[in-house]
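Quick log. Single chain, no ligands specified.
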Amino acid sequence: MILRVDTDEKGETTLNTLEDDEEFDDVADLFDDMFSEEIDYDE
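-> predicted structure:
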């Protein structure tokens, strides 16, 4: 599960799950790219 921070019309912050498959894939790819720079998967 990946959460997104949103602000409602009253200015209150809410956490919402990503429901859109494309948005989920974009975030998952970014997450993988960030960790692949720090972790060597081949070891």
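The chain has a mean pLDDT of 86.
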